[in-house]
Amino acid sequence: MVQGTVNWNTQLDKEWLQEYVDDWVSFYRKHTKEGKLASYIPILGKANPHHLGMAIHGKNGMIIRSGDVDTPFTIQSISKVISFIVACMERGVGYVLDRVDVEPTGEAFNSIMHLEMKSLNKPFNPFVNAGALTITSMLEGDTATQKLEPIYMLFEKMLGYRPSLNQEVYQSEYESSARNRAIGYYLIETGFLEEDLEITLETYFKQCSIEVTVDDLAKIGLLLACDGEDPNTGEEIIPRQIARITKALMLTCGMYDASGKFATYVGIPAKSGVSGGIVAVAPPRVRNQQFPFIEGCGIGVFGPALEDRGNSIAGIRLLKHIASQWDLSIF
Amino acid sequence: MVQGTVNWNTQLDKEWLQEYVDDWVSFYRKHTKEGKLASYIPILGKANPHHLGMAIHGKNGMIIRSGDVDTPFTIQSISKVISFIVACMERGVGYVLDRVDVEPTGEAFNSIMHLEMKSLNKPFNPFVNAGALTITSMLEGDTATQKLEPIYMLFEKMLGYRPSLNQEVYQSEYESSARNRAIGYYLIETGFLEEDLEITLETYFKQCSIEVTVDDLAKIGLLLACDGEDPNTGEEIIPRQIARITKALMLTCGMYDASGKFATYVGIPAKSGVSGGIVAVAPPRVRNQQFPFIEGCGIGVFGPALEDRGNSIAGIRLLKHIASQWDLSIF
Amino acid sequence: MVQGTVNWNTQLDKEWLQEYVDDWVSFYRKHTKEGKLASYIPILGKANPHHLGMAIHGKNGMIIRSGDVDTPFTIQSISKVISFIVACMERGVGYVLDRVDVEPTGEAFNSIMHLEMKSLNKPFNPFVNAGALTITSMLEGDTATQKLEPIYMLFEKMLGYRPSLNQEVYQSEYESSARNRAIGYYLIETGFLEEDLEITLETYFKQCSIEVTVDDLAKIGLLLACDGEDPNTGEEIIPRQIARITKALMLTCGMYDASGKFATYVGIPAKSGVSGGIVAVAPPRVRNQQFPFIEGCGIGVFGPALEDRGNSIAGIRLLKHIASQWDLSIF
Amino acid sequence: MVQGTVNWNTQLDKEWLQEYVDDWVSFYRKHTKEGKLASYIPILGKANPHHLGMAIHGKNGMIIRSGDVDTPFTIQSISKVISFIVACMERGVGYVLDRVDVEPTGEAFNSIMHLEMKSLNKPFNPFVNAGALTITSMLEGDTATQKLEPIYMLFEKMLGYRPSLNQEVYQSEYESSARNRAIGYYLIETGFLEEDLEITLETYFKQCSIEVTVDDLAKIGLLLACDGEDPNTGEEIIPRQIARITKALMLTCGMYDASGKFATYVGIPAKSGVSGGIVAVAPPRVRNQQFPFIEGCGIGVFGPALEDRGNSIAGIRLLKHIASQWDLSIF
Questions:
Q1: DSSP assignment of D154-183, as one string?
Q2: Are residues D221 and D203 in the same domain?
Q3: SS3 assignment for C196-233
Q4: Exposure check for chain D: N or C terminus, fewer CB within 10 A?
């Protein structure tokens, strides 16, 4: 491991980095006003659009936190990463990828059109809603509670605590579910859905309503940066093959229909949600060892004002800046 | 650099690797019969469908060659990588990416539909034909010869010799150009094309008709693995930023509408052409130093029997196998 | 009225016509074997695919019946004509056409794609499912029973009796409703649907499950040929403007995505359903008075073997033949 | 014939009708300001947007003219009616309809998307550009001059004189031909086009650049109202079957993607062009004999300010008003 060759980690370095990060966060907070809160789930529209927070958790134990780091928010589409991982762990990668493709679409996340237009034999990828619902329908168990339990257990292993459901958001999602029901019934008709739609939707809205913080997202990102292995204990929490496929999917499909731009301009696997969260994964790289994070880190961002594709507007700009400053791109 | 810590490079290792690679190439050659030669340009249909060859050029100087390595073939769509690089060098990355997006499409490379359906203000990415023609139209110069000169010069720097045009293939392309003309006129009408279409098409068909070998592709791949810097002399042949953006694009859009699957199952930047060539880039990685190629290598493959998306059928299976055996994935 | 100038109607003529029609029906019955029963509602798959029956009801009182005229069948999509008329009578034509367009689509009747692709502000027309569900949601009443009552009342006026619901077909429709639910939820999300979806669907499936015979369809056709006026009593059953708009819609959109071909080759307003029924309207014409039906008639056809667009295969060929023989085309 | 029973045609009636028509034309001229001149062919943008003129030619010899009736204009897309008729006369209806479908599209007239999206085996209908170019390519002859001669001859028979080409408009069309070239090359690639594209385009742009007046269009409309038979001489100028198919096509596809609305609200076969011309056909009807035109008339309209689909904005409103006042609808 390269780790040994890096003699960074003194208090001085950390303070120096913290200062930079604080500057960047306060600079990009101004950009929040160019974005808009998600509107399709009414309760998300009540967030504070000027919030911006970030946490960076390094493989070497360093943690940098800046901005609005203490506001909890619901995980939303970032949960698609978790349900994909759990489905792969339960069913095997082959089973899952036989039923959901891994191609980027060029379409919005909630498109039905693509399914029909191409007479597809499977949804485009696990991160568009059609694919995510199919994945959720694969989870083992006969009730939402049973299906969610392994998801909660994985969260517990990753975060060190069991996150809780935001009941109010869940209620709001449930009441604004027309589009997802439309997709769900389409999936039933075309034979993709494996389960009763009501159970799938309950599970899906609940997985989306789990409440996290930027530190939680950073921990998840770090675990993926470490190929699923706990950086402290060395325990395999997510099988290596699944962790790596997940990162490939995040890079090609993680940022809605701005995924290509994010891959090009930022260059790290990431997944966003409409609540304004982003989890980003900076794996270890040989290229540049001037910064400790090159050894690998996870980044959690929260900024509920979104650009028109559904990503945190200040969040992606902040990530772009950091990736460029610290040369995080995997390319 | 990690390089120093690797004590590989003895003759023994090379022989041992060569044996493996020979086995794999002869195994996957059997898969060629599941594919089909390209048919849309008549002359490509005359290739030998059972051919399969591969060259691997490592950062550390090691070269492994196996199978049909001496058959020259035209570069076809892989030239889109080169013209994109040259356009970025001539015009600046900002200029180019203002005019061509970097999003994967989910559509075939020669789709016109997408342009119309989404009322796009720019083609989806530089590797679909609409984007590639737009890129070619940006190249400096008033004639095809002037526009091609910097492309030839870049080839010369990368390959150590000036490759030649296959006149017969160029003629065949020119005579089978209806679809590209349809796209070209669509681009004129929507204002994307910067030049006379005839000059753009002549340039484009000529850039596609440049003849290369698997060693040439491996050299190009290695140069990109080294972020554009000549691994022997340290000279910057392609600016670092451009090299890295190019790799991001190859990963998200390089393998036609199978790019997502290639990213997931193989996990390295690559670009294919309908003549059966693939250039793949395995950048240095910290993860696994048991194999020398982890320090970075370029891979050139040639296998003219294609799967239904237009990629060498044996080529992608061979790359998948090697990437898995040597842990090349960037994820 | 031209009527007075026609001195046809003797027993002789009728026998002569009957003979012809019998010949045609038995000839086209052979064509039923080129078609297939509807499969998407399981119970429709149990019909006898070799059935073919026709009834012609003339304005002058003449009735010709031939083939399998006594088999009742569910009205299916032909009910879209009736619900459109009732909605226009209840809400006014302006209200209805503000909410549903009247354009042919070129797409299948159950397409969702079109709604999304064009970001439409209203469904394409009242005869695609998206439009028909929107129309049904407009019907007055808080329950399916209340909404259906005016439909039954209109049937009673047109047919002289109150038709009954085929409970078994209704049940089968209800259980095969995934695609219509998908469309329904899409309509909810986009704000087209005015009512609770469950009530709309119950109403819709019930209106589709009303049982009729070819004579019933011929009566409906005749009433439309007479611009909504009862040919015997002169009573206005459907307001003239609504009857005429309905005929225009039937001509442009009545035969699924074969409407253009039906308009060209047959040339009369018609609407088909997947149970194999067709109602056709031959309005009075000045052109050719050699045949009494030129004064106007309604035609009901039943032939459950369908072509690939969902129309009775023998039925449309039979109508084409008759329209040509008797010069029924409105063009 | 009903004709004999009508005792209209006195000077009084004509004056009385003329007064009405003058009122309507001057009322609807105000609507021209809500429209816009065609912009895609530069020279069309030089027309006077406030122009509105109409000519009505009745089967009984009556002629009513009102507004800007003396301004000549190029026939544009209305020529698609003529080339379709000539192709049917030269090749036979079967040959033509085997190669071009007769379905409305729901898409803009210059869509390429539909061809690709549906992998169609023929263009949607003769009045979208893809279909019209295919029709023009079928015309007999090896040069544009040879192909155009039968078109000119048909015009001569219909109008009583040989119309001339507006060379300036032709030049402008030719220079703004990118979209039509895109469609043309798409047609070549998919095998629809029967001829050299340059000859097809020259023929097509020339047929579009033929100059007519509202009286010419009214004569064409009247001839179609009479099923192709000269109302004065009884000579068959267009075979009856072709005339009737043409009217069916005009009704379902004649007014671009507003054809369904025109069929519903106006209810007569019509074809418009982007120069602002409309030819409308009111065939004889039995229904209402209070107005002489019910015996059949042709209507020519010119109003170069267009609505967003490409139809004369004042022209369609004027036609809607007249059709309603005189009960012209064929439904």
A1: HHHHHHSS---B-HHHHHHHHHT-HHHHHH
A2: no
A3: CHHHHHHHHHHHHCEEECHHHHHHHHHHHHCCCECCCC
A4: N
pLDDT at residue number D77? 96
CA dist list (Å): B32 to B36, B46, B313, C150: 8, 15, 6, 67
Out of C165, C191, C208, a domain closes at: C208
First to last CA, chain D: 20
Active site residues of A: 77, 80, 204, 256, 274
Please report which residue ranges of chain B form alpha helices under DSSP H: 11-29, 79-91, 93-99, 113-117, 129-138, 144-159, 167-175, 178-189, 197-208, 214-225, 240-253, 259-265, 313-326
Displacement of CA B72 from its chain's centroid (Å): 15
pLDDT at residue C3, rounded to an integer: 37
Q: Render pLDDT for B239-260 as a digit per residue (tens, 0 to 9).
A: 999 999 999 999 999 998 899 9
**Residue D103, domain member (yes or no):** yes
The pLDDT confidence band at residue A110, using thresholds 50, 70 and 90, is: low
Q: Encoding tokens for residue A269?
A: 């696997």
Q: Are residues D84 and D203 in the same domain?
A: yes
In terms of Cα–Cα distance, which of D57, D32, D34, D55 is closest to D297? D57
Residues B65 and B110 in one domain: no
Residues 291-320 of chain D whose Cβ lies under 8 A from any Cβ of chain C: none
pLDDT value at residue D60: 86
Are the Cβ atoms of C260 and D104 closer than 8 angstroms?
A: yes
Closest CA to A77 of A329, A239, A318, A306: A306
On whether any CB of chain D is under 8 Å from the CB of B183, the answer is: yes
Last residue of a domain, one of B178, B208, B238: B208
Residue D230 shares a structural domain with residue D263 = yes
> In whole angstroms, what is the distance from residue D216 CA to residue B288 CA?
82
In the three-class reduction of DSSP (H, G, I as helix; E, B as strand; rest coil), residue A266 is classed as: coil
First-last CA distance in chain A: 20
- Domain shared by A43 and A135, yes or no: no
Domain membership of residue C262 (yes or no) is yes
Q: Pairing mode, if any, of strands A297-302 and C211-212?
A: unpaired
The Cβ-side half-sphere exposure at C131, using a 13 Å CA radius, reads 31
Interatomic CA distance for residues A202 and D39, integer angstroms: 53
Residue ranges for chain D with pLDDT beneath 50: 1-8
CATH code of the domain containing A184: 3.40.710.10
How many domains are there within chain D?
Answer: 2
Range of the domain at D245: 2-71+213-326
pTM reported for the whole predicted model = 0.90
Provide the 8-state DSSP code for A36.
Answer: B
Q: Which residues on B lie below 8 Å from A282 (Cβ)?
A: none
Among C2, C103, C266, C297, most D C-beta atoms within 10 A, so best to mutate, is C103
Same domain, D180 and D284: no
Nearest to C102 by CA among D267, D245, D130, D81: D267
Q: What is the pLDDT of residues C262-319, one digit of tens each?
A: 999 999 999 999 999 999 999 887 655 556 556 789 999 999 999 988 999 999 999 9
Are B43 and B116 contained in the same domain? no
Tokens representing residue D149 in the block: 């001669």
Interchain contact A117–B (C-beta under 8 A): no
Q: Flag whether B331 is in a domain.
A: no
Buried b (16+ CB within 10 A) or exposed e, C140-173: eeeebeebbebbbebbeebbeeebebbeebbebb
Contact B264/A97, CB-based, under 8 Å?
yes
- Residue D317 forms part of a structural domain: yes
Catalytic residue numbers of B, as ranges? 77, 80, 204, 256, 274
Helix (H) or strand (E) holding D282: strand D277-282
Query: To 10 degrees, the CA torsion angle through C105, C106, C110, C116?
Result: -60
Q: Backbone dihedral region of B116: left (phi > 0), alpha (psi from -120 to 50 degrees) or beta?
A: alpha
